[in-house]
Q: What sequence folds into this?
């Protein structure tokens, strides 16, 4: 079972006021860093939404997820010790997503202390709330280590839905079955690999692997 490390935080300017969320997902050398403006509301809503959106970003929940949070509210809801009727909708959605993981571990950290990653998601959330803008950053050491946590993919070949792949090995088998040769690009090649935390559609057009729009035409299959 793959381990996915999750850091989340929410921020609100004024409380109530502009809300921002920040989260970082790490798994097997891959990282997704997200800052997102989510409109007007309260700090508690931002804290809960950050966890919900981080959970949603993990497509395959059959993993060991380790959530780090400085929110007593989030920690209490997931441990079953917090009750807040006004936030019931958020709490129920968060717990429903949490129940889908193969295993979930919740770690309570101290806010604004010496936890580097927690401080980083705090900055992401605050920046999103302050600027009212969203952004994300992806980092991967090499595509060949793509963990099953980032699947399933729907596999399209020449615009026809061919199959669904639940692992990198499935991709190899499907390509072989369709008479397509799988060739992994070398690390450091011109193509900048992008992980698939939120890209669930994998396309192959005339032997060309197509990921997001900006990589169309880059041949590495």
A:
């Amino acid at each position: 079972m793959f381990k996915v490390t999750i850091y989340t935080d929410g921020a609100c300017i004024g409380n109530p006021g502009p809300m921002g969320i920040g989260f970082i997902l790490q798994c097997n050398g891959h990282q997704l860093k997200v800052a997102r403006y989510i409109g007007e509301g309260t700090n508690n809503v931002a804290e809960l939404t950050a966890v919900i959106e981080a959970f949603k970003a993990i497509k395959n929940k059959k993993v060991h997820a380790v959530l780090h949070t400085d929110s007593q509210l989030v920690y209490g809801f997931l441990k079953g010790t917090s009750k807040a009727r006004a936030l019931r909708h958020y709490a129920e959605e968060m717990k429903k997503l949490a129940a889908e993981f193969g295993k979930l571990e919740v770690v309570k950290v101290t806010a604004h202390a010496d936890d580097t990653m927690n401080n980083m998601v705090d900055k992401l959330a605050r920046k999103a709330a302050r600027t009212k803008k969203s952004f994300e950053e992806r980092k991967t050491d090499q595509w060949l280590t793509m963990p099953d946590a980032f699947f399933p993919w729907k596999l399209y070949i020449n615009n026809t839905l061919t199959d669904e792949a639940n692992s990198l090995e499935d991709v190899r088998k499907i390509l072989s079955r369709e008479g397509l040769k799988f060739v992994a690009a070398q690390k450091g090649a011109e193509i900048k690999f992008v992980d698939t935390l939120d890209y669930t559609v994998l396309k192959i057009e005339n032997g060309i692997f197509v990921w997001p729009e900006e990589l169309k035409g880059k041949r590495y299959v």
